[in-house]
Design brief:
Chain B: It holds the Pfam family Peripla_BP_2. Chain B: This is Iron complex transport system substrate-binding protein. Chain B: It comes from Neorhizobium alkalisoli. The complex is a heterodimer. Chain A has 14 helices and no strands. Chain A has one domain: Orthogonal Bundle (ABC transporter involved in vitamin B12 uptake, BtuC), CATH 1.10.3470.10. Chain A is mainly alpha-helical. A four-stranded parallel sheet of chain B has the order 8-6-10-11. Chain B folds into two domains: about 150 residues, Nitrogenase molybdenum iron protein domain (Rossmann fold), CATH 3.40.50; about 150 residues, Nitrogenase molybdenum iron protein domain (Rossmann fold). The N and C termini of chain B lie far apart (about 80 Å). In chain B, about 40% of the residues lie in helices and about 15% in strands. Chain B is α/β, with parallel strands linked by helices. The chains are: A mainly alpha, B alpha/beta. At the A-B interface, helix 3, helix 5 and helix 7 of A face helix 5 and helix 6 of B.
C-alpha cells in the first residue's frame, strides 16, 4: 500500500516536472524563427495579445507570433504527444516493440483519404476530413477482418490483416499518384505524405483538439488494464479483464488520436515508434508511468523537430525526413545495444 | 441640386481616395484588396515566378526554386541571386510562413490551374499572413489576357501591353498558318521524358498543351486522356512517330544510338530533337508564358514549309523583350543545341 502511494507520487512528480520542461521548451521555441524577433518582443506580443491591449504593437509581429508561430508550437506538441501515446498503446497491446501507430493501417488509410481529396481538387478542409475518415475506415476494416477470423491468435490476425489491407491501400495511393496532374496535384500529394506543419493555423489546432482528447480518454482510464494486457490474452482473462472490449477501446482511442494528428500534419513517422522506447528506458514498462512519459517526451521531441524544420534551412524541411534522420540512428542503436527496455 | 450631387460625389471620392487599396476579382472568383502601389511580389509557384519576372523583375522578391547556374546565365543579373522561398501551397508546400512574412511582400501571386483546393489554400494563407493572395488562370491560350491582367495588378500596364501584343501576334500567326495546313500534313509527334524517354503525356496533359496548340498529333493520345504516364518501347514502336521530342539530351542520344529505337520513322529520318529548356522550359516546365517561344520553335520544326520562321532572330528578340537579356551568338547556339535540324 505504501509502495502504491510512493508510485502515485512518482507519477505526479513526473507529470509536473515534465510539463514544466515542456513549457520551457515551448517558450524557447517561440523565440526561434525565420522572422527575426527578440525574445523580449515575443513576450511583449504574447502579453499584449492576452491582455487585448495591442496598441503600438507591430501588426506583422502579431501575425508572426499569433498566426504562424504559436499554432505551430501547439500543433507540434499536440501531434507529438498524440503519436507517442498511440505508439506506446499499440506496442503494449501487440506485445511487440517494433509496432508503430501505422500497424493497423491508420496512416495508409489517412494518406489514401488525403490523396483522393487532392486528386478531386477538394478544398483543404475536405482534404483534412477525408484523411481523418480514411484513417478510421482503414483501421475499422482491419479490425473487422481481424475479429471475423476465429480460432487464431487475435493479436496475430489483427497484425496480418493490417499488413494485407495496408498493402491494398498503398496500391491505391500509388495508382492515384500516377493518375494525378504532375504540376499541381503530385507535388501537393508528395509533400502531404512527407508531413509538414507549415500551413497549420489556430483553427487546425482547435479542430483536432476534441478528437485527441476523446481518444486519450480510454488510454488514461484503462492504463492499469493496459498493464495486464501486456501479459497476454490468457493471463489477462484469468485476471478478470475482458480482453476483447479492452483491446477494442484502446485501439479506438489510439486510432482516433493518430488519425486526427495525421489529418493536419500529414505522415510523421518514427515518433510513434521511437518515443515509447525512450520513455520505457526512462520510466520502465508500467503503463501508468509510460503513458504520461510518452505524451510529454513525444510533445517535446516533435516540438524540437518542428523547430528545426522551420528554422535550419531557407525552405521548410518535411517532418517525415527530419524525424527519420534523427529517429532511425537512435532506433538502430537501441536494437544493437540490446538493452532490455521492453518488459 | 446638381451642384449638391457633384459635391456629394466629390466628397465620397475624397473619402475613398486615401484608402490605398482597390478590389480585384481573381480567377477563383475571390475579391481581394490590392494595395495601390505593389512593389514586392511573392510568387507561389514556378509559372508565377516567370510571369512576374517578365513583367516586373524589380518587384520579384524571390524564387520558388533556386535557378541553376545554367539558368542564371540567361537571367538578368539583378534577379540571379534573389532568395529562394519554396512552394507556397499550404500543407503541400515547402515555403516557410515566417520567411514569407519577413520578406514583407505586398502581394502573393499564383498562376496555374484554379480549383477548389487552390482557392481554399489562397484563402487560408491570406487569412494567416494578412497578405493579399491572387489566383491567375495560367492556360496557354489566355496568355495575352493574363499578361495584361497581371500587368495592371503590378502597375506596369505599358510593358504588359507590349508583351501581350507580341503574344497576340504570335498566336494569330500560328492559328492563321495552321488553318491552311490539312490534317494529313501534320506530323505525328512523340514527346519523351525521363532518362529512358518512356515517360510521356496523354491527351489533354498540361505538359503537352503547347504541342496541341501547334496542331501536331500527339501519338500517346492513342493511350487515352490524362496526365503524365509511363509507356513501353513496344507502344512507341507501334505508334511509329514522325518526330521525337526529347526532354533531355540524354534521351535524345539514347534514341539515336539504341538498337531498340532504330526502326522508328523519326529515328530513321534523323528527326530526334531536344526541347530547349533555358532559362525556363520552352516546351513544358514550368507551364507558364515561357512556352510562347516554344511556339516559334515548333513552327520552324514541324512545318518548315508553311511557316517562314527565322528562329534565331525570333529567339533573340523574345529574350530581349521578355527576359531583358541580350543573347550572344554563342549563347544562341548553346540554347538551340540539338533542337533544330542540321543545316
Amino acid at each position: 500500500m505504501q509502495d502504491e502511494t510512493k508510485n502515485e507520487n512518482g507519477i505526479f512528480r513526473l507529470i509536473v516536472l515534465g510539463t514544466i520542461g515542456l513549457i520551457v521548451l515551448a517558450l524557447l521555441s517561440m523565440a526561434i524563427g525565420k522572422y527575426a524577433l527578440s525574445p523580449a518582443s515575443v513576450l511583449n506580443v504574447l502579453i499584449s495579445g492576452l491582455t487585448g491591449n495591442t496598441d503600438g504593437v507591430d501588426p506583422i509581429q502579431q501575425t508572426v507570433i499569433w498566426n504562424v508561430r504559436l499554432p505551430r508550437v501547439l500543433a507540434g506538441i499536440l501531434i507529438g504527444a498524440a503519436l507517442a501515446s498511440a505508439g506506446a498503446t499499440y506496442q503494449g497491446l501487440f506485445r511487440n516493440p517494433l509496432v508503430s501507430p501505422d500497424i493497423l493501417g491508420v496512416s495508409a488509410g489517412a494518406s489514401l483519404g488525403a490523396v483522393l481529396a487532392i486528386f478531386f481538387d477538394q478544398p483543404v478542409v475536405i482534404i483534412q476530413i477525408s484523411s481523418f475518415c480514411g484513417g478510421l475506415l482503414a483501421v475499422g476494416a482491419v479490425y473487422a477482418v481481424g475479429t471475423a477470423i476465429r480460432d487464431r491468435d487475435p493479436v496475430l490476425t489483427l497484425v496480418l490483416a493490417g499488413v494485407a489491407i495496408g498493402a491494398v491501400v498503398g496500391a491505391g495511393i500509388s495508382l492515384i499518384k500516377i493518375l494525378a496532374d504532375p504540376y499541381n496535384q503530385l507535388p501537393a500529394m508528395t509533400y502531404w505524405l512527407l508531413g509538414s506543419l507549415t500551413a497549420v493555423t489556430r483553427a487546425d489546432v482547435l479542430s483536432i483538439l476534441p478528437a485527441t482528447l476523446i481518444g486519450l480518454l480510454p488510454l488514461i482510464l484503462l492504463r492499469w488494464r493496459m498493464n495486464v494486457m501486456t501479459l497476454g490474452d490468457e493471463e489477462a482473462q484469468t485476471l478478470g479483464v475482458d480482453t476483447r472490449i479492452t483491446r477494442a477501446a484502446l485501439i479506438s482511442g489510439a486510432t482516433l488520436i493518430t488519425a486526427a494528428s495525421v489529418s493536419i500534419a500529414g505522415i510523421v513517422g518514427w515518433i510513434g515508434l521511437v518515443i515509447p522506447h525512450i520513455a520505457r528506458l526512462l520510466v520502465g514498462p508500467d503503463f501508468r508511468k509510460l503513458l504520461p512519459a510518452s505524451i510529454l517526451l513525444g510533445g517535446a521531441y516533435m516540438l524540437v523537430v518542428d523547430t528545426l524544420a522551420r528554422s535550419i534551412a531557407a525552405i521548410e524541411i518535411p517532418l517525415g525526413i527530419l524525424t527519420a534522420v534523427v529517429g532511425a540512428p537512435f532506433f538502430l542503436w537501441l536494437l544493437a545495444s540490446g538493452r532490455r527496455g521492453w518488459s | 441640386m446638381s451642384r449638391l450631387l457633384a459635391l456629394t460625389i466629390a466628397f465620397l471620392f475624397a473619402l475613398i481616395a486615401p484608402s490605398f487599396a482597390r478590389p480585384f476579382t481573381d480567377a477563383g472568383g475571390r475579391t481581394v484588396e490590392i494595395p495601390d502601389h505593389v512593389t514586392r511580389v511573392l510568387t507561389a509557384g514556378p509559372p508565377a515566378s516567370v510571369l512576374v519576372y517578365v513583367l516586373a523583375p524589380d518587384k520579384l522578391t524571390g524564387w520558388v526554386r533556386e535557378p541553376s547556374a545554367q539558368e542564371k546565365e540567361f537571367l538578368m543579373p539583378a534577379v540571379r541571386d534573389l532568395p529562394t522561398f519554396g512552394r507556397l501551397t499550404g500543407q503541400g508546400g515547402t515555403a516557410n510562413m515566417e520567411a514569407v512574412l519577413a520578406a514583407k511582400p505586398d502581394l502573393i501571386v499564383d498562376v496555374g490551374t484554379v480549383n477548389a483546393t487552390y482557392i481554399s489554400l489562397a484563402d487560408k494563407v491570406q487569412a494567416q499572413t494578412g497578405i493579399p493572395y491572387v489566383l491567375i488562370d495560367g492556360s496557354f491560350a489566355k496568355t495575352p489576357e493574363t499578361l495584361r491582367q497581371v500587368g495592371d495588378l503590378l502597375g506596369v500596364s505599358a510593358r504588359a501591353g507590349e508583351l501581350a501584343t507580341y503574344a497576340e501576334t504570335g498566336l494569330k500567326t500560328l492559328n492563321d498558318g495552321l488553318a491552311k495546313i490539312p490534317a494529313a500534313d501534320r506530323p505525328k509527334v512523340y514527346y519523351g521524358r525521363g532518362p529512358e524517354g518512356l515517360e510521356t503525356g496523354l491527351a489533354g496533359s498540361i505538359n503537352l498543351e503547347i504541342l496541341e496548340a501547334v496542331g501536331a498529333a500527339n501519338v500517346a493520345a492513342a493511350a487515352g486522356k490524362g496526365g503524365l504516364t509511363n509507356v513501353s518501347l513496344e507502344q512507341v514502336l507501334g505508334w511509329n512517330p514522325d518526330i521525337i521530342l526529347a526532354a533531355s539530351p540524354k534521351f535524345a542520344a539514347t534514341a539515336k544510338s539504341d538498337a531498340g529505337w532504330a526502326n522508328i520513322a523519326a529515328v530513321k529520318a534523323g528527326k530526334v530533337y531536344t526541347t530547349p529548356s533555358l532559362p525556363f522550359g520552352w516546351f513544358d516546365s514550368p507551364p507558364g508564358i515561357n512556352r510562347l517561344l516554344g511556339v516559334s520553335w515548333l513552327e520552324a520544326l514541324l512545318y518548315p514549309k508553311a511557316f517562314n520562321v527565322d528562329l534565331k532572330s525570333d529567339t533573340k528578340s523574345f529574350f530581349k523583350l521578355f527576359y531583358q537579356v541580350d543573347l550572344s551568338d554563342a549563347q544562341l547556339d548553346s540554347l538551340l543545341k540539338g533542337a533544330t535540324p542540321k543545316p
